[in-house]
Amino acid sequence: MFSDLSKAFGQTGDPAFRKVFFISTAISLVIFALLWGLAGYGVSFLDGMIAGWAESDGWITSVLVTVAEAISWIGVAFLSIMLFPSVMLIIIPFFLEDIAKAVEAKFYPELGEGRQPPVGETILGSIQFVGVTLLVNIIALPLYFIPLVNLFAFYLINGYLLGREYFEMVAQRRLVLGEAKLLRKQFSGRVIIAGFFLAFLLTVPILNIAMPIWATAFMLHRFERIRRDAM
């Protein structure tokens, strides 16, 4: 487990890893720049509504507008920080092949070319994963307000989801989906524990931006180890 993590972290400086990181980060920043632009229009619209509701241009209206703007922009900034890793989770699968090839070239040169999923399948899988993750976490939101329970719930839920998604994602380069699911279920404990490490990385500021890249490399190592054990 830790040796696989070490291998994933140790390859951070690999040109393929750097390329994927910079491209995916740039795409994410463009997406958020567009969202911030839309948020600006939204805040302006809100200012107009408040001014119309107050029906005056006095100091009370100015205070209300200022407070509303501050709350709105703080909310937008908070959501941007929280959702940035999620956007990266959507983008990274499109570069799965680049990361996988770099890992295999260094550690598993004996393996041939892996299966590359169609673009449509990748898009659908990414959206489904992020959608399910957000939905499950929203449902579990009340648990996150209970001390100690919140940590257990967060790591259990997201550890399972991340472990399942990343394992099946890298496994499908070598197996059909049915075989990948069967192998995951057969070694579910090891996959979930690997997912716990990914969930932890997701909660560490700054590091969580690169988490999807490390997660892909780490889970590829876990998959190859599990596949050998299953033989």
From TrEMBL:
Protein name, entry field: CysZ-like protein
Keywords: Membrane, Transmembrane, Transmembrane helix
A Pfam family this chain is assigned to: EI24
Matching InterPro entries: CysZ/EI24 (IPR059112)
Record's bilayer topology term: Multi-pass membrane protein
TM annotation in the entry: 20-39, 70-96, 134-157, 191-220
Main location group: membrane
Species for this entry: Kiloniella spongiae
Keyword check for Transmembrane helix: yes
Cellular compartments annotated: Membrane
